[in-house]
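dude i think i finally got it to work??
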Amino acid sequence: MAKRVCYIHIGPHKTGTSSIQWFLKENRAELMKHGYLVPESGTIHGGHHQLVRQLCGQAVPQHQRAAAASFARAIKDTKCEAVVISSETLDDLLVYEDCARQFFGRIEELNLEPKLVFFPRNQSQLVNSRYTQVIKSFHRSEPFEAFVQAEMRHPSFRYAHLIVLAHAFRAKLIAEPFTEETITRGVAPNFLRAIDIDPLQFQDTKVRRNQGAGPFTISVAREVLRSPGCEGQGLTWLQASRCGKILTVYLDKKGLADTGYCGLTTALARRIETEWQSDNDAFAQEAWGRSWAEVFAVDVGREFRPNDYEICPPGWTVRRRLRRAVREMKAMVREILKDSALAIKAPWNDLRKRNSGFPENKSSGQPQ
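look at this
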């Protein structure tokens, strides 16, 4: 039997992944009519996060351990000629050689032809968005510039290695630039064109999900996580997830939710762009035959004004609201930490391991 094409959307984080996954989930039946199977197994809010963790050989919660087997059955039973899976988790995992070998090995076993769909983004905007995500998700609590210093050379900000990865496993790499214009128009139409579907055949393609947090939200989460009992103890993945959800509900209920956080200064943005310029140009020339600055003309060289409260302290009224919000959130977090079901000791519930792939395996180079 001829191989089916498997479109594998691998992110990265903060490039409209939630919007794409919501679209796939809501349009699963319609996509099947067009010959595209979107598996239901191992999904969280439309993303195939637990499925790809299994395919990469990672541990998953008990109730998700049948995801890979269900995926294989769905492929065997379908008449669709193409398969679509989406998880930005792969952007983190595929930098590890063992993960990459296991993942593409399973794809080969299922007689699938892999095509990697990726949305590179200019790193200065990307690192700003990543910071909002890790803070509001209760994963980290350091100041913005400290985060930049720690993460600026992280492999997930490098794109050129994806070309090596695609060549190593005979996969086609489909790169779609994620720019400020993409955010305005919506990312779903770009994704559909990347997998050879006319977006005009769908009505609900302008989807905006999981908008970035603002300076108030970031300050509340950061201060709560820095408090005794949180930072020192270290949260589990389930505890952090619950805290993030409670924070969102609390701020919405109190009318305090905000968006538009910026920790960048213009000088810091230029430093980040200079750091990645050679890697970006190598990727852009291979992917599009153009320079990075040409493709990302709207994004490169922008000026920024930070609104982080640690950089630009707010007025007295905002400080009073902030103190009250932090105090009330701390009380809720203390209750979360009392729930033994959220503190279960398991590899899949270890927040540090989930955020760093396989810390015990330092080999992150691509296969030769």
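The chain has two domains: 4-120+159-201, 124-154+213-276+300-354.
im so relieved honestly
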